[in-house]
Amino acid sequence: MDIAYIHFYVENITQTSNWFQEKIGLTFLGKWVKDSTVTELLGNNSVLFYISAPLDSLSPTADYLKIHPPGIADIAFYVKDILAFLNQTKRLGVEIIQTYFSNEKVLHGLKIQAWGSLSHTIIQKAYPERLVNNFVKPQLMITGIDHLVLNVPSHQFDTAVSWYQNLFNWKIQQTFDIKSHRSSLYSVALVDSQQKIQFNLNKPTSANSQIQEFLEINNGAGIQHIALQSSNIFETVNQMRKRGLNFLSIPKAYYTQLLERYQGIVPTLKKEEWQLLEKQQILLDWTKDNPESMLMQIFSQPIFNQPTFFLEIIERRRQVQGFGEGNFQSLFEAIEKDQFVRRKRK
Q1: Residues of the chain whose pLDDT is less than 70?
Q2: DSSP 132
């Protein structure tokens, strides 16, 4: 499997499209109107975003936006055998929203109902031959989508995890039980057999959890964030900050305690990279057995008016897999702090 594209439903297509072009460096690739909906295509040779907005109340996008704030409505995947996947959906009783056929009446895609209002478009890998390789080269060193994160209500969580495992044959890679003195969450990281797709699910484990806040504002389950891969996170973040993208702030104490976490086992960062790490407020995790294998992450402020969806920038060195619990804890605390400030303002 591979990620084909991410589909956003928004209220103002011009504003959102311009934001992704200006802040993230995606390129405008096309525009069309269908079913009272205007859609723009943005991307590069490794990331593809569809952005749709309603032209009137008859648009399916308008129906979505009556219930949810702007965000991701569909995640599309390539599969090698669309007929085998179709049989799998029927066996599991998955709702098929739409099927897509070629002019020769050959099935080449289908859309299924996923969790909450999220859907998944499934596309035959070889149909059609994608133009991705002909897209412009990535700006800001963004080279792909690393992972996606779905927030789910507590009472639906185990069923949702099993649903994704059974349908896509994904396996549990890691689990996290994250807590602070204020709130908590639980997370499961799923991965496909080739480790091309990493899909995480979160649930709240306290009444005031940031996940619970998301679910209330979003009116149900939804995608909390996607992580964009960078080949040089320091340069990517530097350029994005210059373009006006705001990131969550990380306390200075995080960097003073960073080296204590692994009792003197120091990752192989250059001296100037250590300085940039704190200056750019980037999180860092590494393994005790292999300090050269590092995970560096940073998280944006929510990109829409409601505090739901945000972006992550991530760099993996030496093909490090999974997620660092230290970084997860720091993200949790940063979002919690942002949540506390919002509530105080209200």
Answers
A1: 127-136, 261-267, 288, 290-291, 322, 324-328, 330-332, 334-335, 337-346
A2: G
Helices and strands (H, E) in the chain, number of each type = 9, 16
Domain topology for 142-345: 2,3-Dihydroxybiphenyl 1,2-Dioxygenase; domain 1 (3.10.180)
Residues of the chain with CATH 3.10.180.10: 2-134, 142-345
E-state strands within the chain: 2-9, 27-34, 37-43, 48-54, 71-79, 96-101, 107-113, 119-124, 142-151, 171-179, 184-191, 198-204, 222-230, 283-286, 294-299, 310-316
Structure tokens at 17: 């499209």
Architecture of the structural domain at 2-134: Roll (3.10)
Could you say which DSSP state residue 182 is in? S
Task: Select from 108, 110, 76 the least CA-distant residue to 8.
Answer: 76
Give the pLDDT confidence score for residue 129 in this predicted structure. Answer: 47
> Contact, 134 vs 90, CB < 8 A?
no
Q: Residues of the chain with pLDDT > 90: what percent?
A: 68
Tokens describing residue 40: 């723009």
Full strand arrangement of the beta sheet holding 96-101: 27-34, 37-43, 48-54, 2-9, 71-79, 119-124, 107-113, 96-101
- The number of residues making up the chain comes to 346
228/237 Cα distance (integer angstroms): 12
Q: pLDDT at position 125, please?
A: 86
Give, in order, the Cα–Cα distances in Å from 174 to each of 197, 220, 229.
14, 24, 20
**CA 216 → CA 84, 178, 188, 230, 308, distances in Å?**
37, 20, 21, 32, 10
